[in-house]
């Protein structure tokens, strides 16, 4: 106001008019608290801005995502490097050097990409990061798993603001292509000299939301096999019946596979095992028939038929025994059957052991993890095997302990679903949890490997 004082008239009338005008201008100007929510810079709006970058397959915008995350890292003083082990597939590595970098480091992993979304089936556009009045943020990737990437960074931002210095170096890897297998992302990274130089001693990767009041934690993944079973047989007129026709042989195989599926599912239904603790097998396609202008020639029996199955093996499944079952029962050559197994990654670590992280006193990292969750006011449910597959398997293959964890409780599981969303209070609580985890894990010095 002082700078405008020279413009005030010496007459009382002019003085009052100028004062009234100034008062009206001040009333019209928005205060910082009255600015629209999306115009402020805070943990929620930063999360929304990341969610608005469309990194869905088949054309994920990795360039914009890496640019955004790099800017966030620079704003809090983290070192950054970008690698392309495969052209067009950038991997961003952020680092916070510890006071004793000779100790094995901590790695926090999150993937950049997301699965596609069908906009017409969403309440709000899937890349709008729309926030409802009750605080739900709708976006593809809100749970899977852009949330943890930003929570890592926000937790580091808060720790730095409090003057915390890690003892162990801390790294955040933001990787491409997890949703399509990770083979051009984390799989290449863990085999690189750049990864070896990090000397990772313990890692965290994504988990799943918990509908209840306890946080879920995952000590292993299941392992996907894509199985194609093909049958051949006598072609002929639709009115004839042949032994060992292609469709007959394939139907027999489908029945045998279905019985195996039912036996595994019965164990789950009886409460004797979780879904992730059995081998699941689900048919995903059938391909047969002789095509015609109207669809299929109904009076022609095909000479070939094929079915595809998605198998998920547990960490303790014997892969060789599974292959023997497929060869002898599901697709026996005696019935003119053949098969192809596409193994989507390793099922044993580099020493031939099941890829599981111990969740007992034998693992000092587990004890630190548990205590950090308790210190943040949280409780853990019984450790689980993740039903699906994450990049954690590539780290476990190196013999490095990894836990899958996403701090979302009292939250519906919406990964890959329509209307994926996350409540902002849950998101903010997750930042607090990661502050506890990062400070505890990076300060822990008893474990040397």
From TrEMBL:
**Which keywords appear in this protein's UniProt record, sorted alphabetically?**
Hydrolase, Metal-binding, Signal, Zinc
Domain (Peptidase M20 dimerisation) spans 227-332
Q: According to the UniProt entry, where is the signal peptide? A: 1-34
Cofactor binding: number and manner:
Binds 2 Zn(2+) ions per subunit.
Which parts of the sequence bind Zn(2+) 2? 144, 179, 416
Identify which top EC class this enzyme belongs to: hydrolase
Record keyword Signal present: yes
Superkingdom classification of source: Eukaryota
Subcellular location, record wording:
Cytoplasm
Write out the GO MF terms: aminoacylase activity; metal ion binding
PROSITE patterns reported in the protein's UniProt record: ARGE_DAPE_CPG2_2 (PS00759)
What cofactor does this chain's UniProt record say it requires?
A: Zn(2+)
The main location class comes to cytoplasm
Q: Which GO cellular component term is one of those annotated?
A: cytoplasm
- List the catalytic residues: 113, 178 (proton acceptor)
Could you tell me which InterPro entries the record lists for this protein? Aminoacylase-1_M20A, ArgE/DapE_CS, Bact_exopeptidase_dim_dom, N-acyl_aa_amidohydrolase, Peptidase_M20, Peptidase_M20_dimer
Q: Where does Zn(2+) 1 bind?
A: 111, 144, 206
| Family note | Belongs to the peptidase M20A family.
What is the protein's given name?
N-acyl-aliphatic-L-amino acid amidohydrolase
